[in-house]
Amino acid sequence: MRLSRPRMRAWKNVAVSATLRRLRPEWVPRPHAAHLITTYRCNLKCLGCGSWKVQDHADLSTEEWLGVFRQLRSLDVVKLLGGEPFVRKDMKDLMIGVRDIIDPYSSSASTSRGPMTPSTSSTPWSSTPPA
Q1: Most buried one in 31, 32, 73, 97, CB count within 10 A?
Q2: Sign of the CA dihedral 109, 112, 117, 120?
């Protein structure tokens, strides 16, 4: 079985972390995973979530997020979260940015309740990912 480059990098990061932790107990590893909140905006009012109550929506722009991704290239796992992440009109661009800039082992996942995903919204999403 041939491992992909991101998967090999993830396994290398785990091995280095485990080895250095044993050799130097004071050593602190670089983060390998990030859960990034792209927005607190939400079109639902779920009882178990308070995201919809947040009044100040100072979301980062697409370019600002891409700059963040450039600083987080060591990550193996990236998850894009929010109130409802797909309320952002640039969510597709952010997911492509994670894939192209960070190239994580676990591709950019997103937690959504579904009302704004391509199958339920009029957002023009391509049915096939770009090459």
Answers
A1: 97
A2: positive
Distance CA 63, CA 16 (A): 32
The residue ranges of every structural domain in the chain are: 5-110
The pLDDT of 45-67, averaged and rounded, is: 88
pLDDT at residue number 131: 44
Instruction: Give the rounded distance of the alpha carbon of 35 from its chain centre.
Output: 6
Helix ranges restricted to H, 3-109? 5-23, 62-71, 91-97
Q: Are 75 and 102 in contact (CB under 8 A)?
A: yes
- Both structure tokens of 106: 């676990």
What's the Rg (C-alpha) of the chain?
17
User: How do residues 1-28 score in pLDDT, each as one tens digit?
Assistant: 566 777 777 778 778 877 877 888 887 7
Q: Are 59 and 68 in contact (CB under 8 A)?
A: no
**CA-to-CA separations, 12 to 7, 23, 30, 80, in angstroms, rounded:** 9, 16, 13, 24
